[in-house]
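Comment on this:
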Amino acid sequence: MSRRRDELTTGPVLPLHPPSLHASFAAVLDDRGLAPRWTVSGGEGVFPEPPHATTVLALRYGDGVVMAGDRRSTAGNVIAHKRIQKVFAADEFSAVAIAGTAGMALELIRLFQTELEHYEKIEGTRLSLEGKANYLARMVRNHLPLAFQGLAVVPLFCGFDEEVGIGKLFTFDVVGGRYEEQDYATTGSGGAEAKSFLKASFRPGLGVDDALRIAVEGLVAAAEEDAATGGPDLKRGIYPNVVTVTASGLKEIGDDRLEGIVVEVLAGRP
């Protein structure tokens, strides 16, 4: 019996980690050597062309913010996916959309969602909208070495600021710059065309129906000029990803409602 006890007490010991009170989930992972690392080998050979997510946009309206994205991703001159999701809930009162290297963008968004949830559990309160935007900018900045290798991730962020009671929009650049926009914002390969349409169509105090129509038509206008942006496809039932964020929280717009908007928009295009 004594021998058995000695074997149990002198055997391999599992590593024990003290409880972590980090408000950042990434810091917890880093303490344990589990933080995600995105690296690209410098070896010889042809690096495969990864899928790229393309056009996303957002605009303010009377009650909050609308965010929308097309469904196409491309790999070079090839359509990689026709139904990719580009607009996601960051938390209950904010949304984030992706453009750039799709796979890395999706991983970044999942980590961002986890960070916000972890912060709320540790601190007992939600991070402010400005704090969320700042943290997302830091995550984008951490991808800078990969951006120099052509694997950039450029998100679009929006949310309802509960402190001042209005919707806000934020754009980013590949080096982690964060910029608050006033009325509308776009990013991605068709962003210039979508922004031109929004500039001509936006007006303060829009109702939700008008804001949804303008968002969808902005993506249609981009798709007409940019091959990497996919327009709505009524035959296959492919519609944009669209969400609204208001004082009541985030709401995803269903395909049944989008179908009517798409029919109206396409019928009115010149």
Summary: Helices lie at 2-10, 25-31, 102-123, 129-142, 144-147, 191-201, 208-225, 255-268. Residues 51-268 form a domain with the Glutamine Phosphoribosylpyrophosphate, subunit 1, domain 1 fold (CATH 3.60.20.10). The first strand starts at residue 52 and ends at 53.
